[in-house]
Every structure is written in structure tokens, then in C-alpha cells.
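Aim 2, interim progress. The first record below pairs a target sequence with its C-alpha cells.
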Amino acid sequence: MRLTPRRVVALGPLVVLVLAAGLLGSAWHTSASRVTSSPAGGSAPLAAAHSLPLQQLAGERIVYAYAGLRPPSSLLNAIRAGQAAGVIFFSNNIASPSQIRGVIAQLQRASLASPLHTRLLMMTDQEGGEVRRLPGAPALSEKQIGESPHGVTLARSAGDGAGRNLGSVGINVNLAPVLDVYRQAGNFIDEFGRSYSSSAASVAALGGAFISSQQRTGVAATAKHFPGLGAASRGQNTDLGPVTLRLSTSTLRSVDESPYRAALAAGVKLVMTSWAVYPALDPHRPAGLSPLVIGGELRGRLGFHGVTITDGIDAGAVTPFGSLARRSVLAAAAGADLILCAATNPAANSPSIGSTVLHAITSALSGNQLSRSAAQKAADRVLALRSQT
């Protein structure tokens, strides 16, 4: 997710991070054939995407959002119908750990009662420092970690802390770490301490350490924002409008994309794409709407086989590309496995955004505007990740 001032969560003075030896949480389960609990207490095999009705196939792309502390009945109905892959939580959804734990349990019960009998992806932004939706770890920002002589140790501790904290309430996907390599102090990504370093090698080492440590707790990590927002100036905010980053292919690959090699080596489960335009890769479309970026750079050149996810589909950077329905179809056609159906202003979040996207993708599949084969492969990746939670 992008960060505008209204999204910053002030959690008081940063506490000193205390490092303690101890065992990491349960190992990450990597088998895509793992079974999930059924409502009756038995087990149900992982659903096969090729057998899903069109609305459920489209639903495997939808990450819903809502405003307030209680999930609306429309969201619960969509989940029970098997038309949801996940839910994202913002600060206005969380009053306390016990409150959000109860909400997540309610949503998961609805999902286990759906035709798929599979748990949802429950996600939030828990980067560290000022960007935390849930109180607690990780206390340090990426920048503070990057400035420390003990950065790798701190990054490992932050990943473990984030995983344990999120896992304790049932959140199984963290939309972190940020792998952007910032160019100037105080620029868009450095303003709130969201980048580890201006050195690609340092970002790679620290991001890889965070990912490995967090995923050992069973919480999936998300490397973002591919291919990189580190060159964006302070005023270049994709939430608010179009952003073009005129970097050479050589710079993009040697600097901005470099940390993603370490992330892939660490086994990162998801990659979030940026909404900026990179003319060297695709002069016409933002990365998250570009098959040249997702299919060519991320999957083809770097060899990523995990789940791809968009940033918020309501961002100002993509509104010039048409209606919400059209943007969603473009994202799916470009190779986005998951579409984050969230508003730029979290107070405006509503399941209706996800419903609009669901109907648009269902219609595009029915009318052969989207490849059913590609949709099934995307759903297979998402269902495999859901089965691991």
C-alpha cells in the first residue's frame, strides 16, 4: 500500500528493540497439497481451479476492504459464496488485538463454510516504525534498521516480531517488506523511514533477512513495490496521481530490481507491483497494469513463481486508465493474481469495490476478454497460498 499522511499510524515514541535468543515460530508449510479444516472438523482437499464456477474463479482474485470495526453482511455473504480470496485491514478496522482476532475468526468461519472450505488470506501493512496497523512489533522502521551496524540481526528480529505479532491475531499475510532503494533523503519512500537504504546491496541483505525470519513464523511476506519506487521524489505519490520514473533499463535491473533476487532466494510468497510508469520497460502502462513488467521482468527475467498482488486499485495513478471495472480487467490481463480492492482513503473502503471488480472479471472471463486458462493458473497460485495459512 502507498502511504499518504492520513495513513500514518502514530504509535508514540519508538521503543528500544530488545533482542533475545529464542526459538522461531512454526515452520512455514510449503506443500501446496496440504488439506484445510472443514466446518465439520474433517478435512477438504485443495480446490482445483479448473472446476470452479466463473464467479468463484474470479473471486480468487479479490481482496476486500471495509471501513469500521465490524465486517458488513455483504462481505460475509461474498465470503460464504466462495467469492473472496482475502481481506485487508487498516487502522480503522482495529481497536485492539482481541477485537481484530474475533473479527478474523468470524471471517474465517465464513470462509470454511464456503464451497471451497479454505481459509482466507488476512493481510495488513506491518512494515515497522510509523507504518503499523497493529500495535507492537516491529518497533523499528526499515530506515532505523538500515542505519544500524547490526542491521541484519535487527532485520531478522523485526521479521520474527512482525510474524509473531500478526499471527497472534490470525493475520497470515504481511504487505512488507518495502524493497525500494531510495535515492534522496526525504523523498517519497524515505519520508517515513520506509526504505532500508540507498544501497541496493544493503536493501537486498536486510529485506532477505526480514522475509526469511517472518516466513518461518508462518506469516507470508510481500516484497514491494516492484520494480521499485526508490527514485520517486517527495511529490511523486501514486495514491494521488500518475507517476513516471524515467530510469534506464540498466539502472532498473542493477539497482531497483536487485533486491528482488534476494527476496526470491529467501522464498518470498508475494510480490506487490508499483503503480508508477517505467518507460524503459513499458512506456504506456503502470507496472501493475503491464504484462511486460509482470510477465516479462518479474516472472520471465527474475523467475518469480509466487503470487502477484496490485497496490490499491483506487489509486490516482491508475484512474486515467478507465473505470474501476476496466482497471481491474487490465490488471488481471497483465498478470495480477490478486487485486487489492481498497480505496485511497481507508474511511471510504467498502465491499462494493470488491463486488464491482468481481463482476467485471466474471464478465470478462465469460466474454473471453480474459483467458480462462490464465485465470485458472492465477487461482491455483492463490489457492496454494491459502492452503498454507
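The second target in this work package is listed in the same format:
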Amino acid sequence: MRPDKIPVALQTLPFSMIQAEECGVSRHFLRVMLRDGLVEKIARGVYRFCQSDYSEEDQFRAALLRAGKSSAICLISALSFHHLTDLIPNKTWILVPQIKRTIYKDLKLIRVSHPYWKTGIESGEGYRITSLERTLLDAFTYKRYVGIKTAVDALKTALREQKTSLRKVLDMSLLLNVDARIRPYIESLS
């Protein structure tokens, strides 16, 4: 297979070895492309074409390829994605089931027993991320990870820039069963 015959899906997004094989790229040809500098290895088992730009969303795709199917970007990474914090995450924060573990040092896993996968999680192109309202609620719920100041500042920023409303945040808190935790903070803001 010649480099100009590579499937378009592999040229634009980070991909795993399994995805490459499904598109007809053999392991041998992938090694040849690595050697020739057409492809670079982002992490163990995750690759990308050198001609494509490596964006924040590509970082999310690569992280979720390594974390597995039942996972979503959350907390500091999601706050940064939604432009609600000045913090620059040095790890990709991922919401995962409680039993999941990882060997990767650049991933910060937030293990939860009841992750509510159908509530407040949006699908991007090749990745899943918590919605703006859920991200705000998760910041208060997991304040031991992000700090209460970061959570309050994110909520104030979202309200000031009119990205969301208190009503939407309260509605999401009822769906996630965290309304008792978030209500004191919301009452102090209103």
C-alpha cells in the first residue's frame, strides 16, 4: 500500500493499530511509515499522520483510544475545553467505571461507580466529553480533585459569559442526583 492510498479516516484523526488493520493497513506497512516519518507514534498503540495538526481534540481522541470505550473527558480537561478555567491540564482527565485502571502517566482517571453515561455526555468526532453543565457539577462533586475555588470560578465564568443558566445547572443536578451538594453554592451566587 502506497502512502497516497492511505484511507482518509486515518489521515485526519489519531488511530489505533486495530483501526489501521480494519482499514487495510498492515502492521508491516505501519512500521515502514513510522521509519519513513510519515506516521508518528503518539503513545503505545496510538498513531497519527505527521501532516495533520495535533489539536486538543486529537489529544482527547488519543487518550480515549487508550482508556477504552466506556470513558469520557471530564473535570479540568473539560473545563479547559469549555473555556471555563485558566488552568492548563498537564494530564488528560477521563471519567471511567470504577474497575478501570491504566498504566499511562499522562491520563488522570476519575473512577466512579455510577457514571450516568447517558446524562450530560456529548459526543464529538471520535471522543466523548462531559457537557458544560455536567462539567460544572462534576467540579463541585469532585472538588477534592479540582479545588472549590476552581469550581466556583468556573461557575461564575459560565454565568457571566452566558454560556449556561442556573436553571440548566439545577436541572442537570437533579438528573445526576447531586442537587443537595450543589444547592448551597448556587444559593450563595444568586
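Strands lie at 15-16, 39-43, 46-49, 72-73, 92-97, 107-112, 121-123, 128-130. This observation will shape the mutagenesis plan for the next reporting period.
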